[in-house]
Amino acid sequence: MILSEAWQLYKADKQIQGYSSQTLKAYKIESALFIKHLGNVEIVEIQRKLSNCISEKLRVN
Length: 61
Known about the structure:
Layout: H1 3-16, H2 21-38, H3 43-60
């Protein structure tokens, strides 16, 4: 699943939970910035990159 798909599912869930339109608008802006920064990549790619980053940090320390 790519980030934009995950955002749509998250948004739908929060709408069902009754989150305000202003809150959802703020979340949308934050998710757009996140996607712009990382690209609209598969979530698995983010997990791999994070794992690699953590592994590298542990080796250095």
